[in-house]
């Protein structure tokens, strides 16, 4: 019985298992195929790996664009301020960079272009730019430019359609996958996919033209090649007052003053953060939160419940135990046998038992010796031998209905012979 | 100890800390007030040491009938006691209303009656009377530990005699004994092989019983009358092993055996035979031998009452040792057991030939009526019914085989359903008695 149930359960479970295996395999493969921004090769100008951008850096060099690789945001900003002419800041891993610091007004020189590769919504909300992710596709798709932007229209269809961005400024290309907003004199461009910049994909479609076109608009590219999250110092409450904004815009001073200006103020503030626990004289805020009457009532209720529990715990005499009689019915073994026969579908064996018992009883009833032949039984009872033989020694049943039929036939034959009123007329 | 009323008193004080200006003081006030009252209660409550308990009531009862046990509580102390007591019996004693409340002024007694409707035969003891003396406010009470309560509890045991449903067929069987005795004139005289008296011939007497020598002395035709043998020995052997523990219908198989043994004992003692009893499984559990005719029967019933089936295989060699003693006279040995294959073939069969050589052996097995019922197919059977019928036929065939084997070894086998079992055993005894084969 349980084997059949198990098989039936398998029939339900197996398709789902296959489906789950298929889906999870797909998800795992997809996840492994996605390039990891923490990989040091990822969109690095000095990497020739498949996910690197050595080819792009080379092509920019051919176009006469200086590529300045920086591995930290502060250093990159310093580098931006140092050069006099407008430059392009290429942020390959915006999810690891501190966009809050980057998007602060005055963080980068005016007329700087910032190009970010597929920033996620989580990192965009930390920035001050009015950019949001509209949606993300399963894989990168090829899209037509569909806009008047000269770079995009020159490049033609490119594989950038992975993340789509909003707001739609009218200048969005490739179905919202390439978007430029201007905030505080800085043109921020988001590219929906890292594919156009990768060594292994740059040759496809118009990828190369798009990547080069985006970065070659200025003569200098500061390439932020960042592969681990930067631990940036917490901004002090009033960093703007100490920030050397005015003089930094004019020339290229050492961009250190900002951190040094913040440091003296932060040093006393940092140890001041954990102290509440360190002051024992302070009253517990929880006790302060409720009036004393509340606590007194609560204590009284607790004591009343405790008294109730104590009163209920003391019994007027413990329960009395005594050994019980056996509950096993006398026919348990017999019923167990019956269930075993049924379980193993021993129809033949069951029917043989019934037939054997009927033969013994008929022989005794007809006054014949034990183990007499069917022919003698038939002769003595006046029935056709073939009929008796079919009932008492017929073929074994193949299914339950045949078994029931055969068992009823045996019982009916026995009744016919043993009770003369209903039985067959003796010749 | 405190009562629930103490907790209620505390609960009544719950609004006070919120209403009064000084909440912690109010809390302390409520606690001191309640604790003070409880302490007064505890001090004023009557002492438990002055209470004396005595029990009276039924000592024996037939299973199925109610019994009463009275507990008398006397206050010998100098103070009044507000008493709450619980009279605990074992669960199978079926005691009703365990808890009682009493007010006992000094020097007075009160009776507490417990009605018992036992659910099993055997000894049903009163386990413990737990006493609790409450104070006047009912906030606190005095109660001693369990061992003290058990110490003051008067010992009492109700002996529940086994169910004897065959009582209703007893008059019929006794009538047949009287016919055998010849006490009732049915068709002339009594049967039997033992010479009784000589009397004058009346028309209708069997001419073969005319005593010609006595007729010559009396100058009249005199006939001998016969009576059944007396002072034969009937030995009831009850198997209390594992096969007696299983349930036939709603009661253990042993109950059916005890019922049949009781009927047989009553009949045999009325027919002036001596009845002995032996109950055994791995050891001898009960033995009743000797004693006069009149005192024997109550002792038998008493011994049977305390029998309980054990979950162990019966050791029939013990039986052989008992019955083959040199001083043992020839008896009718009735072994009440179950005709299961293994215990019969491996246990009883090896000792049976020796027993049968010295005694007349009857092996009486209680059959489960469910087996015969299941062996017959219902009007609209399912496959499960057919398989059950086959299994039942298999059990019946095995039982027939056991019966044949036992018969070959010289035993008379009685194998009947539980409802007619006692009657059949009595019939076999009466038949043997009538034919003088005891």
Automatic annotation (TrEMBL), chain A:
Keywords on record: Membrane, Transmembrane, Transmembrane helix
Keyword Membrane among record annotations: yes
Membrane-spanning parts: 292-313
Low complexity bias spans: 239-270
Name this protein carries in UniProt: DUF4350 domain-containing protein
InterPro entries: DUF4350
Entries under Pfam families matching the protein: DUF4350
Organism: Actinoplanes palleronii
Superkingdom classification of source: Bacteria
Region (Disordered): 229-285
Domain (DUF4350) ranges: 47-215
From TrEMBL, chain B:
Keywords: Lipoprotein
Superkingdom classification of source: Bacteria
Limits of the DUF58 domain: 199-374
UniProt name for this protein: Lipoprotein
Originating organism: Actinoplanes palleronii
